[in-house]
Amino acid sequence: MADITVELVAVERLLWSGKATIVTAETTEGEIGVLPGHEPMIGQLAENGVVTFRPVDGNRRVAAVQGGFLSVSADKVTVLADWAVWADEINESQAQSDSESDNELTASRGEAGLRALRRSRES
Fold this sequence. Notes:
alpha+beta, ATP Synthase, domain 1, five-stranded mixed barrel, ATP binding, membrane, ATP synthesis, ATPsynth_dsu/esu_N, CF(1)
């Protein structure tokens, strides 16, 4: 099966680097799916989005992201997020509380966390 190199990087850490068969990301223009051989492009990540990918050797991974960019070249997808966490690192009750915050940044991250949790539970 064809694969593409993927890097998921947040300001504070590298979350993942490896080979995957598909990447999906929520951008300001809508959700995009990237398969090996995709045309080069750059997209702006949604402020409270979700990125998923299927590693060649493993189960689908889901991350909540906020802000940043998606860069697609002939053989690599790089997700550069201002903030990102794995869905399995999210405390649902804290994310719910954060999503109701008056602070716009906190609310956006809480919403992204809740969306990532919902996406991770889909089959």
